[in-house]
Write a structure and sequence with these properties.
The chain is mostly beta strands. It contains seven helices and 50 strands.
Length: 500
């Protein structure tokens, strides 16, 4: 009798569904999904799914939308520490699996760490422990390596420990996975699930069936995905992309992997082309990190299944899912604004002119080519003869650099020289062609002028300033507004006169 009571109690706990949390909004439909706004919202979802099989089953057909990035760091160090075990996966085992639609909205969950080396309290280890006939999309998961990464004994992945017939698309995971059997950067075990347009980075280690993206693939489909990991290691079966049971019908196509990935078995570097289950499908076609960070790689249809390129742009384009800083980053979501922008290479400018002749007027140097990416300072405008230095500085060295890869200021020398053409007055030769020249303050005094001769005054820019005739007078006084160099034309003679 007592035994029957216990069985009845267990059945009641297993089959009784509890009220779903209110989260921060929404009603769970496709047009009005439940809104996940905080770490507590996400944990509430996990608690609900993990509370009973009926709860988990009730998530089928429900829609959830991540409204913003969520940082789990504070939550896991406090309320969600779980006695040092860290994050408790959503869906702790196969009959407590999440079965709904989870759209990351192009946001990410950061600060994830899990320390369950013996799968304490759970059968699958990851942000989600188990998912079944669910859909997860448009989500980034960034693991906290400093806190130890994601650690479990079996069925270990950054996104999900176990995937049963679910669809995963447009998801990335960064960070380290430390597992046992069936450990992968994205998913530990993929059973008859479909994974597309996903990638994982970081290091993955385990005992058996270890893959950069998926540890063990059974009947599953993996396409258009990438294992960009630095290294993977195991004691036994290891695959650069995913260890696939091809005899059970698993399909892998148009997948790629970091060709520089280090693969080790029992502490020794393994041959990526021949060890155990590795072949071109489960290994992923090798590509350099330069290729994996190239916009052209993702945007070329021929590289991808059914000639369908990634939904990506190399600039802000909210009509696309993904964005990439060409040559400097792996793909990230269009909504992400915290990704450092690449430094644009800028050709070094030069001074448009470096040598000038003294004119008595200010001389300003300029750059060739002009650009809003840099400024000119220092000795930019000078009047007197001499040698000067102007400095070119990048406006924002975090987003631009010189073409040689540096961001240092550039120094340019330039000079103003005296004109060697005779300038009057000339102490050694005050009379040229019998015409005398003297300057007092802003006055030019001409003497010994030929009679009845036209006299004209110009500035160095050719502007006419004065005209007169000597008539019967042999002395002429001309006043000028400013000091400088003037041209005086006396008949056919031209005098260049400095008023100082």
């Amino acid at each position: 009798m007592k035994t029957l009571a216990i069985i009845a109690l267990i059945a009641f706990q297993t089959l009784t569904a509890y009220a779903i949390p209110s989260f921060c909004g929404g009603s769970g439909t496709s047009s009005d999904p439940y809104q996940i706004c905080t770490a507590q919202d996400l944990a509430d979802l996990g608690d609900f799914v993990n509370a009973g099989a009926s709860n988990a089953l009730s998530t089928a057909g429900l829609y959830f939308l991540l409204m913003n990035d969520i940082n789990l760091t504070s939550y896991i160090s406090g309320t969600g520490n779980n006695g040092g075990k860290g994050w408790k996966p959503i869906g702790k085992q196969d009959n407590f699996a999440f079965q709904g639609y989870f759209n990351g909205g192009g946001h990410k969950i950061i600060g994830l760490w899990i320390n369950r080396p013996n799968n304490e309290d759970v059968e699958g280890v990851g942000l989600f422990g188990y998912i079944m006939q669910a859909e997860i999309s448009n989500l980034g998961v960034e693991i906290n390596n400093t806190a130890g990464g994601v650690k479990g004994k079996s069925y270990v992945g950054g996104l999900a420990g176990g995937n049963d017939r679910s669809i995963i698309s447009n998801v990335y995971v960064t960070g380290n996975i430390i597992g046992g059997n069936n450990s992968g950067g994205l998913v530990g075990t993929n059973y008859d699930g479909t994974i597309s347009n996903c990638y994982a980075t970081g290091d993955v280690s385990g005992f058996d069936y270890v893959g950069g993206l998926v540890g063990y693939n059974i009947k599953g489909t993996i396409r258009n995905s990438i294992a960009a990991n630095n290294s993977i290691s195991t004691r036994d079966n290891i695959c650069r992309l995913a260890c696939n049971r091809s005899d059970l019908g698993g399909t892998l196509s148009n997948n790629y992997a970091n060709s520089a990935m280090t693969i080790s078995v029992n502490g020794s570097i393994a041959d990526a082309d021949s060890y155990h289950y590795i072949d071109n499908d489960i290994n992923g076609t090798g590509k350099s990190l330069s290729d994996l960070k190239s916009f052209a790689f993702y945007n070329t249809p021929a590289n991808w299944y059914n000639n369908e390129a990634w939904d990506i742009d190399n600039a802000v384009n909210l009509a696309k899912i993904w964005r990439i800083n060409d040559g400097t980053s792996l793909p990230f979501f269009q909504s992400q604004t915290d990704i450092p922008q690449p430094q644009v290479d800028i050709a070094k400018p030069v001074l448009a002119q470096t040598t000038f002749t003294y004119t008595g007027s200010p001389i300003t140097v300029s750059l060739n080519p002009p650009s809003s990416s840099y400024t000119l300072s220092g000795d930019v405008t000078k009047t007197n003869a001499g040698t000067y230095t102007a400095t070119v500085t990048l406006v924002d060295p975090t987003t631009s650099r010189w073409e040689d890869g540096t961001t240092i200021d550039l120094a340019f020398g330039w000079s103003i020289t005296e004109d060697e053409t005779p300038i009057f007055p000339n102490r050694e030769n005050p009379l040229i062609g019998r015409i005398g020249v003297q300057t007092i303050s802003n006055t030019i005094i001409l003497s010994n002028l030929p009679t009845n001769t036209k006299i004209e005054l110009y500035n160095l820019q050719g502007k006419h300033l004065h005209s007169s005739h000597s008539e019967n007078s042999k002395i002429l006084v001309i006043s000028v507004q400013t000091k400088g160099i003037y041209i005086v034309k006396v008949g056919s003679q031209i005098l260049r006169i400095a008023v100082r």
